[in-house]
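Dear colleague,

Thank you for sharing your sequence with our group. We've completed the structure prediction you requested, and as agreed, I am returning the results in plain text so they can be pasted directly into your records. Please verify that the sequence below matches your submission; if there's any discrepancy, let me know and we will rerun it promptly.
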Amino acid sequence: MKAEFNKNWNSSVQPRKQVKFRANAPNHIKRKFMGSPLDKELRIKYGRRTIEIRKGDEVKIMRGKFSGKQGKVGTVDVGNTRIQVDGIQRVKKMGGEKMITWFHPSKVKIIILNTDDKKRLKRSKKIEKIEKVGIKTEEDKKEIKTVKKVVDKTAKKVVKK
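Please find the predicted structure tokens below.
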């Protein structure tokens, strides 16, 4: 891997290179690392499994000491890939002061989305693109069917569980 960040870098098996890629990535790429899984109902509604977390989303913590607790996302730190949930603080060992607790976005589940930004909730890009342009070929029809099947299958799996 080169010294400067290269967006077209081919992935490596070596962990040290993967860590370097993530650490040296610019913020517009680090933003994509801030993905968090959606709740079952939201998965069905929006047809996707994860979405980038934002301030104002309501989340449930799934791992660690605070698992099961809920709250709104107060701060999103893209540079360090972490979030802070309002109302959840930990106590220092010495002195008993309360401190802000940071969580990795993959360790929380989004329960309620902040719907202020309409562009955030776009449907599958393939379906939108085909609907805008219109169905022109048989390949487009097949592609729509496969995308819809995948969305239907994920919805059925979620409902069955």
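Summary note from our side: The beta strands are 35-37, 50-52, 58-61, 70-77, 82-91, 98-103, 108-112.

Kind regards,
the structure core
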